[in-house]
Specification:
The chain is an alpha/beta fold and 225 residues long. It has one domain: Vaccinia Virus protein VP39 (Rossmann fold, 3-Layer(aba) Sandwich). The chain contains ten helices and seven strands. The protein has helices spanning 23-27, 31-40, 81-94, 108-116, 125-129, 140-149, 159-169, 192-195, 210-218, 220-223; strands spanning 3-6, 17-20, 52-53, 67-73, 95-106, 171-175, 198-205. It has a seven-stranded mixed sheet with strand order 3-2-1-4-5-7-6. Helix 3 (81-94) runs antiparallel to helix 9 (210-218). It starts with a strand and ends with a helix. The structure holds S-adenosylmethionine.
Length: 225
């Protein structure tokens, strides 16, 4: 059974192909950098050298209709709207018919509500949305490396929007609670703190046609050469 964990970060459960492409994951494969980094702490070093490296904005390396399950937590929002749609279209292409997809992303509604109810002041809204590369605590070197080691949010979602987009791509989807799923043994991959104030959408690939049309129309390489 082929199960993909797309944008895994440092969470790499057994039984899943854990995919990421952060600089930290690349250099974790280089012993020399590993030694230097231990001294200077340039990059958060929770990276495993077992991560399957792939840029999720590009065509996936898996065959059509070959994947049983796709899980992706707190990653779609790091892609632009166009890249995100392409990513979901690629998920659709590689999934087998009736293959399961589960997407977890931060909930824009929860952040806006917190602001509207006075729980967060205006000058913290962008921090909550996590849309900046910069952290005031960064050294000069870290600031220069920020575009490679930080992945700010580039698109936000709420439940109706994610349901609509995934339906348009050809998934039969529903909003889910944390750990409510048809995926076997979900607890090895779903992290409780990642489901707080999150949009959780799960569904199945129902249409074989939609992905072909959308892939062609939406490949970001074509849209943004
Ligand atoms: C916020 S972390 C989420 C990690 C983990 N899934 C979780 O829920 O804790 C987002 C991950 O997406 C990865 N990511 C962002 N853009 C990516 C891309 N274009 N290709 C591959 N991975 C990407 C980042 O490297 C990062 O590890």
């Amino acid at each position: 059974m082929l199960k993909l964990n797309l944008g895994c970060g440092s969470h790499i459960p057994d039984g899943w192909v854990n995919v990421d492409y952060a600089l930290g994951a690349w250099v974790a494969k280089l012993p020399v950098f590993s030694t230097v980094n231990k001294k200077f702490r340039i990059i958060n070093f929770d990276w495993s050298d077992k991560i399957y490296m792939h840029d999720l904005r590009k065509k996936f390396p898996w065959e059509d209709n070959s994947v049983d399950v796709v899980y992706s937590s707190h990653t779609l929002e790091h892609l632009s709207k166009t890249e995100g749609r392409y990513f979901l279209t690629e998920c659709h292409r590689v999934l087998k018919p009736n293959g399961i997809i589960r997407i977890v992303v931060p909930n824009l509604t929860a952040i806006v509500n917190k602001y509207m109810q006075g729980e967060i002041p205006a000058d913290q809204v962008l921090d909550e949305l996590y849309v900046s590369y910069e952290s005031p605590h960064d050294s000069g070197l870290k600031r220069k490396l920020a575009p490679f080691i930080r992945f700010p949010h580039k698109c936000m979602y709420d439940t109706p929007t994610l349901l609509r987009i995934m339906s348009e791509i050809g998934f039969d989807v529903a909003s889910k609670y944390a750990f409510e799923s048809e995926i076997d043994n979900l607890s090895v991959i779903e992290q409780r703190d990642r489901t707080d104030e999150a949009v959780i959408v799960e569904g199945k690939k129902i249409s074989a046609h939609a992905s072909k049309v959308s892939s062609k129309q939406l490949d970001p390489v074509t849209v943004n050469p």
